[in-house]
Amino acid sequence: MKYSKRVKELRKAVELDKEYTLPEAVKCLKDVSNVKFDETVDCAIRLGVDPRHADQMVRGTVSLPHGTGKEVRVLVIAKGPKAEEALAAGADFAGHQDYLDKIKEGWADVDVIIATPDTMADLGKLGRVLGPKGLMPNPKSGTVTMDVATAVKDVKAGKIEFRVEKAGIVHTAIGKMSFTEDQLIANAEAFLNTIVRMRPAAAKGQYIRSLYLSSTMGPGLKVSRDKFATN
User: What is the per-residue pLDDT across 115-152, written as a single tens digit (0 to 9) for each?
Assistant: First the structure.
């Protein structure tokens, strides 16, 4: 495989075969970052689960203490006063039938959709559109609720949703390269500790199989699982 000059220099600057501690990996990524934009830092974990079985599904939310560094666009599907309450809490869009019609027409320019329970019958009809985009509200993630104000504020403050994929991989952005090392470490630990607490009872053997930290244009660094081991 041919690598660009920039990538070659990056590969020389890191030990690709090394298993880094979390603080070492964060420091290394910041030290070698050499692009002109604020890269996203991503954490990816391979779990010892088979998500095809319902009792091994790992899905939930976590509030990152320092947020993601990304502006999150929130749509709230609600009627009357609840729509107004959502807008007052910071939602980017809020309403009912008008937004259902826009979604039917293909609009989905948002990152999170929150809905009140009384609108889910209508919203559920758009499952084929919203499901593949990961936008369908779910009670387990706190995005189906009558307390729309709190839900909006939580999402805006850094509450994220995660779900294990078919290959047993779960990943999320834990911040931006402009964050301090301590902020990135705290966000990563919040995410990882949540994953550990959610270990399904049906998961056998080694739970966290591998753990990597990477940035948008940077290398993927293997991180030691010792601190998060749950064998």
Answer: 999 999 999 999 888 988 889 998 988 899 999 999 99
Tokens of 61: 């939310």
Is residue 230's pLDDT more than 60? no
108 CB neighbour count, 10 Å cutoff:
15
Helices (H) and strands (E) in the chain, counts: 8, 9
According to DSSP, residue 39 is labeled P
Residue positions counted in the chain: 231
- Does position 3 have pLDDT exceeding 60, yes or no? no
Kindly write down the DSSP assignment for every residue of 137-161, as one continuous string.
--GGGT-B-S-HHHHHHHHHHTEEE
pTM across the whole model: 0.80
Residues 6+ apart with CB under 8 A from 81: none
Q: Quick check: helix, strand or coil at residue 150?
A: helix
